[in-house]
Each structure stands twice: as structure tokens, then as C-alpha cells.
Amino acid sequence: MSRVIGIDLGTTNSCAAWVEGARPVVVPNREGARTTPSVVARAADGELLVGQIARRQALTNARNTIYAVKRLIGRKFATPEVERARQLVPYAIVEAPNGDAYVEMGSKMYSPQEISSFILREIKEYCEAALGEPVEQAIITVPAYFDDSQRQATKDAGTLAGLEVVRIINEPTAASLAYGFGRRAPETIAVYDLGGGTFDISILEISEGLYEVRSTAGDTFLGGEDFDARIIDFLLEHFERQTKVDLRGDSMAMQRLKEAAEAAKCELSTAPTATISLPFIAVAGDEALHLTYTLSREQLEDLVRDLVMKTLEPCRNALEAAGLKREQVQQVILVGGQTRMPLVSRTVQEFFGRTPSRDVNPDEVVAIGAAIQAGVLQGEIKDLVLLDVTPLSLGIATHGGLFTKLIERNSTIPTRKSQIFTTVTDNQRVVEIQVLQGERELAAENKPLGKFELVGIPAAPRGVPQIEVTFAIDSNGIVQVTAKDLATGREQSIEVNPAGGLTKDEIERMIAEADQYRREDQRRKEIRLLRNRLEGLLYTNERVFKEFGNLLEGSVRTKVDDALQQGRRVLESEDTAVLQAAIADVQLAARYLTEVMLVDPTRMLWSSEAASGKGTEG
Ligand code: ADP
Ligand code: MG
Fold first, then answer.
1. Which ligand is nearest to the CA of 370?
2. pLDDT tens digit string along 329-378?
3. Of 190, 213, 176, 208, whose CA–CA distance to 328 is shortest?
4. Is any atom of ligand 1 closer than 6 Å to the C-beta of 193?
5. Half-sphere exposure at residue 597, Cβ-oriented, CA atoms within 13 angstroms
6. What is the CA(376)–ligand 2 centre distance, in A?
7. CA–CA–CA angle 539, 254, 531 (5° rounding)
8. Which residues fall within 8 angstroms of residue 4, CB to CB, at 6 or more apart?
9. Hey, whose CA ends up nearest to atom 6 of ligand 1?
10. Under 8 Å between Cβ of 347 and 312
11. The pLDDT value given to residue 402
């Protein structure tokens, strides 16, 4: 059996880990980073970019850069969630013929499964490079609140990436596995996971290597991105008040703003203030406009306090579902990058009345847990059993449009439940089984997962036939439904294949396309990255040069001008060495420019030494 890797396929960042010598370790990616942005982009030359490379060029290619696709996976286009997602992102979200939400990238339509598969493919490849052997199997984590179609779609993404997904596990469960690894004392724990796009809370019992999820709750549309959006709105309003210019229509400006907002937010987790500085964000008439603002931690907290408070409602629900009081929770584990914000940990601490655990790294703990589960499956880690729960109730539609639940939410899986049903009319020969998932009373208000008919029921008065309906959920949370006529033994079943989703043919076609991509030259990727770096540098510095260039001393000015012109000339070069040299030159030019821009020119004393690059540099 080849090595099974654990993957946290996050909305914002993904992380992979495996078990080495009975210990879980994170696998660094090609760039040496321990997490990889869940970003995919199509460059102007048609190249597919994944991870940090894709994220870095988002600025200049916003419409073809797909991030947070996890918010769309397994969802229909015509849903409020997708509608909201459409308002948040600069790329196009479109309706596929089967009603699913797809995205547009490089004027082609992609399913969220495909986009996710590009990320998974990248992870598979860097793991293979690091491990030195093929990686064919994975455990992928999903938010506890993901429904059946979202889980299926995640599994399909794995298949498309050439990975057999041996298990889908819930993110908070994975986190608790990582937390509990090596601990033996029985404990009731809460896992509070606030990531980029989703919030999850789970209550678990762990004891002697047995992990039992008692309840889960959450919000699939609450995360760090909403925090960023608050800062962005605030800055937009501030800028508009100052300059009368509305930046909302300018996708380039918006993208720069988004990056700056997120960076400031992260900085404010450790610093009391953060300065956002976006030179040349807009032009009014002939005048270039700059956005500069110093945001304090208190201001940020005021902007997002309601978002943080919004996480407490699911916490209450999860406690109630587990039949526990807050005081009975003995440990709280913080997961997800957004929990690094002091206001978040403080709020959690106040709610549960205890200091959250600082033993686990919030960015890596989910992948580590997935790797531990992989180790268990492979027999490398012993004495550990994971009992997960189903996040939503499952049942069928019954007479009068009612929803009859067979499996209640938060039931431990794998599980199996049967119930006897009967006919509505005399001599009814066919029954229709409509499988639904949800918590509402009326069938129509729950999510349809699929339907089938059981035919050939012998003629009988209404209420006489006995039809046994069985629901079985496997350890991935995937549902199988069977209906059996007890008189004849005739039965019919489906593995729930959510309406929509991907067909087998589509999956095969996509796998073929993915193979094509895999053969693409890695070197071209690197060139693309260098070009983007150069272009970004040129973009800012040319403008700075235009405005402040005349403040530079003559020979320096020529040097800077030459570097910028040379940069433009070689921008399309295919030669990495040429691009690297140009980047180095422009970076040097940028240093001169930054100095004249920041220092009051009347206080500047240039020396020829500084001009020739030998002077002291700051
Ligand atoms: P996901 O599980 O959705 O992929 P992550 O757990 O990686 O997300 O969290 C990403 C979110 O955490 C982003 O919104 C990011 O801005 C935020 N984040 C990361 N580091 C910090 C920090 N130091 N302070 C505040 N927020 C942070
Ligand atoms: Mg996460």
C-alpha cells in the first residue's frame, strides 16, 4: 500500500501532512512553505498557475484568478450562498447546464471540483517530490457542516487529481485527533475553527484513544474574508470621502486593496496599529491619488465585533446538541488563521470561561489530524478509533409532502437505520423514494439528494404492503439508500449521487485534461512567475519615477530610467536569467525611488558614492 497523505483542502490555504515513523509531519511545498494558497489562475499565455504563484499574480489578473472556490463546491448556482459569493469575488461565477455553480477562468467554464483538483494535483506532486515515491491515496478534510453533495464533490476533486480519496473526515475532528495525539486522559473538548471562509464548532469526547464527536455546528459563510471585506469597505468609504473617487469599479485597485486589508488585519494580531499604503491607487484628472491610512487594533475590533459574536450562536447550538454546559468543556482548541486575532481568542475565552489551548498550530492542525487518521488506516498508528457524526438529518419524503427522518443529525457514523413504510392508495404497485437531507419539517424545504422507484409491489389494500427503507452511511459520510418490499423481497437502492454533480464521463474527460496539464513544463511556470514579479515592480516604480524622478540626482536618474526601460524591454523574455537580472535592477531602482519619495527632498544630501551603489543602504 502506498503512503496515504492527509490534506486540509482549505478555502484559503491548503496543507498536507503524512506520517513518518509513527509521527505526523507537515510536508513543505516547492517553495518551502508549509501551507499553499488555495488559488488557481489562468495566465494570459494560457498557463495554469496554482498556489503562491497564482496568488501573487492575482493583482494583474483578477478575473482569471480563482480563490475561495470551496464556497461553491457541491452547490447549485441558484442559491443564496452562491449569490453572496458572487458579490465577493472578481471572477465570474456562472450556471452550468446541470444547475451547479461553475467558475470562468480564461474564458472557459470549470466546475469547482476541477479547480480544487488543480490544487490537489499540485499538493500530490510536491508531496511526491518530497517523499520520492508516488502518492496515490489521500484523506481529505471538509467542514463538519458540508452536506452530502459537497462531500461527494470533494471526493470527485480528488479523483480528478489522480488521488484515491480513502476517507473524507471533518476538519474539527481532524483537529481534535491532532490535539489528542499522545494524550490519554479522558476529556471533553471544543474545536473552534475560524478560517478564511467557514466557521465550524465541534464538541468531542476523547478518551483512551477513542474520539467521539458529540455534536457539530457552524456557518459555511463566515470567515476571515468577511473580516477583510469590512476593512475594505471602511477604506473605500474613507477614500471616497477624501477624494470623491469610488474605487469599487476598478478591479485592479480592489485587488490591491484586498491584499493590503488582509495584510493589515494579520499585522494587527500582533501590532497595535498597521499602516495601509497604496500609492497610485487612482487618478483624478491629471493627479495621481494615494490611499494611506493607519488602522488601530481597536478600530479593527469595532469593524468586525459582530462577526466574532456571530460565531457564538453555533457554539451554543453545539453545546445544546451535545447536552453539555459550557463549564463541562475541559479544553478549547483554536483552529484556522483567523483565530490568531486577539479579539477572537478573547471572545472564545470569555464564552467558555477558560483559556484556549495553545499547543497546536492553527494553520497545520487539520492536516496533521488527517495524517494521523491516515496512519491509523495504514496501521502505523495504533490504539486510536475515530467516531465521526453525520452533520445533517437524512430521510425520505412521505405522504402529504412531509419529511420523515431516518437518521438524525449528529448520529455517529458509520451507521444504518431501517423503518417500515407502506402505500397510500389501494393496489398501488410503485412507490417513489425521495431521499432528502436537512432539518426542516416539509420535504420541499430540505435538500433533495436523489430519488428512485421500487416497482412490482403486489396488489393490496392501502396500508398493507410493508416497504422497508434502509439508510446506510459509510465512514466518509456517503449515503446508500435501499427500499425492500418485504412480501416479495424485491429491492432497489441508490448510492446517493446528488442531483447535479459530475457524471462519470465528465470525470474521465477532466482527468484526461488534467494529465495534459501535468505534462506542462515547470520551467514555464517559473518564467511566468518572474514576469509577474517584474511587471508588478515596473507597474509601481514607473509611476513613482514619473512623479518623483526629477528629485533624483542626474546619474542616479539615468540609472533608474535605464533599469525601468530595460525591464519593459525584457518583460516578454523566455530567459530566466535575463528576467532575474532585470528584477534585480528594478529592485535597486526602487530603493532609490523609495528614498526620494519618503524623505523630504530638502533634507536629502546625495553623494556620488550612494549614487554608484557603494553608500550605506537602509
Ligand atoms: P481556511 O481553512 O479557510 O483555508 P485558514 O485557516 O488558512 O483558512 O485561515 C485563513 C484566514 O486566516 C484568512 O482570512 C487570513 O487572513 C486569516 N489569518 C491568517 N493569519 C492571520 C493572523 N495572523 N491574524 C488574523 N488573521 C489571520
Ligand atoms: Mg481550515
1. 2
2. 999 999 999 999 999 999 999 999 999 987 889 999 999 999 998 988 88
3. 190
4. no
5. 20
6. 22
7. 30
8. 18, 137, 138, 139, 166, 374, 377, 378
9. 336
10. yes
11. 83
Q: What region, left, alpha or beta, does residue 450 occupy, with left being phi > 0 and alpha being psi -120 to 50 degrees?
A: left
Q: Is the pLDDT of residue 102 over 80?
A: yes
Contact between 545 and 567 (Cβ < 8 Å): no
36 lines ligand 1 (CB under 6 A): no
- Residue 456 to residue 484: CA distance in whole angstroms: 11
pLDDT number for residue 606: 54
pTM of the model: 0.69
**Distance in angstroms (rounded) separating the CA atoms of residues 304 and 310:** 10
How do beta strands 101-105 and 93-95 pair? antiparallel
CA of 142 to the centre of ligand 2 (A): 8
For atom 12 of ligand 1, which residue has the closest CA? 337
Q: 291 with 278: CB under 8 angstroms?
A: yes
Rounded-to-integer distance, Cα 615 and Cα 597, Å: 18
Query: Cβ(197) to ligand 1 under 6 A?
Result: yes
pLDDT of 250 = 85
Contacts of 93-101 with CB under 8 Å at 24 or more apart are: 96/500, 98/499, 98/500, 98/501, 99/499, 99/500, 100/75, 100/76, 100/500, 100/501, 101/72, 101/75, 101/76, 101/77
For 539-569, give one letter per residue: b (16+ CB within 10 A) or e. ebbbebbebbbebbbeebbebbeebbebbee
Q: Which three cell numbers stand for residue 18?
A: 503524512
Residue 362 CA to ligand 1 center (angstroms) comes to 9
* Residue closest by Cα to atom 11 of ligand 1: 196
Contact 9, 165 (CB under 8 A): no
CA separation for the pair 170, 191 (Å, rounded):
11
- Whose cell is 417500515? That residue is 420
565 within 8 A of 559, measured Cβ to Cβ? no
Nearest CA to ligand 1 atom 25: 266
Q: In angstroms, how far is CA 127 from the centroid of its own chain?
A: 19
Alpha-carbon Rg of the chain, whole angstroms?
28
Cell of 580: 532575474
The grid coordinates listed for 569 are 524591454
Preceding amide of 186 cis, omega within 30: no
Q: How far apart are CA 555 and CA 566, in angstroms?
A: 16
User: Could you tell me the distance, in angstroms and rounded to a whole number, from the CA of residue 336 to the centre of ligand 2?
Assistant: 5
Q: Is the C-beta atom of 490 inside 6 A of ligand 1? A: no
Q: Are 318 and 145 in contact (CB under 8 A)?
A: no
Catalytic residues: 8, 70, 171, 193
Q: 495 to each of 12, 159, 163, 228, 254, how far by Cα in Å? A: 31, 17, 21, 40, 44
